[in-house]
Amino acid sequence: MQPNRVDAVFLDRDGVINELIFHEESGVIDSPFTVGQLKLLPRVGAAIKLLNDNNIKVIVVSNQPGVARDHFTEAILEETTDKLKDELAAQGARLDGVYYCLHHPEAPNPKYLKICDCRKPKPGLILTAARELAVDPGHSYIVGDNLSDIKAGKAAGCKTILLGKPKCELCQLMESENVRPDHIAVNLYEAVQIVLTNGDMLTKGGKSKMEMFLDTASLEEIKAILPWGVITGLTTNQKIFLAEKGCNFRQRVQGILSLIEGPVSVEVTSSSLNELIREAREFASWDNSKIVIKVPMFGDGRGLHAASLLDKEGIKTNVTALMSTRQVWLAARAGATFASIFFNRVKDHGDDPEKVVAESRSLIDRGNFKTKIIVGSIRKPEDVMQAALAGAHIVTIPYKILKQMPLHPKTEETIAEFDRAWEEFKKAEAK
Question: Do 221 and 111 have their domain in common?
Answer without folding.
Answer: no
